[in-house]
Amino acid sequence: MLCKSSLALLMCVAAASVSAGPVTWPSGGKGRICVLDMVRDMTKGFISSIPIAAGDNQGLYTITNVEDEALWVKFNGNDGATLEAMNNEDKRYPYLAFIAGPGDANTGDLLDDGAYSFVYLGGSSQITPGNSPPQKTQNSPRNHKSEWGGENKVAETGTWRITYPDHEGLGTHVELAPYWTNLNGQRSLKQTVFYDEYNPFFGITNDWEEHRKLKKHAVEVTFNLC
Asked: 96 has which bridge partners?
């Protein structure tokens, strides 16, 4: 069934709702990104259009409770999609990207079991293929240029899986779930998205329990289009 009209779209969602699991949202859309705290079961705010201005996490995305500062994004596709920022403050990096962060001695930049490794949410100047290993890109600058590669770190934009988990009320719940692909092409579906309330930035880690030993101010979050 072609979901071109509003009526056809409603029929498509209704037909999909008889099957188990989330349904795929129609390809393409735009909106703000709401941040939901999974522990406290509450909305924390929005991803901000204004990046962190200074310090170790300069250039990374953070959170805001001010609606006028909320980041607006648009996208095409459902699995391996790239989110393009519409009102981000730094126009050099329009694509939301997860950027490789510090690894540990055993696994480096791999998101793997038994490792605290994580990747950061920032911006990139170019799109990388969906569900593919990271590439060297020009990404939002950070102060760790000598230690962690800074703006020349590998990054991924095509990380987003966009689904419609709820079937009640079309358009009320569009979930944006990022998944990082390791340099070796492997991707674990155990990954956890988090927000570090102390630093403050967004990231993904694979071993949440191990990561929490190092980052005690990190909380598990999910993203919804709102």
From this structure: 123
Burial 91-125 (b: 16+ CB within 10 A, else e): eebbbbbbbbbebeeebebbbbeebbbbbbbbbbb
Look up residue 113 and give its two tokens: 């079991």
Q: Which two tokens stand for residue 140?
A: 């939002």
Percent of the chain with pLDDT over 90: 38
Least confident of 23-32, 52-61, 105-114, 157-166: 105-114
> Which residue from 142, 128, 167 is spatially nearest to 51, judged by alpha carbons?
142
What's the pTM?
0.80
Residue 160: both structure tokens together: 């987003």
| pLDDT tens-digit readout, 31-63 | 999 999 887 778 899 999 999 887 777 889 999
Closest CA to 159 of 194, 197, 189: 189
**Amino acid identity of 204?**
I
CA dihedral in degrees (49, 54, 60, 61; nearest 10)? -30
Tally of CB atoms within 10 A around 15: 12
Amino acid sitting at position 138 = Q
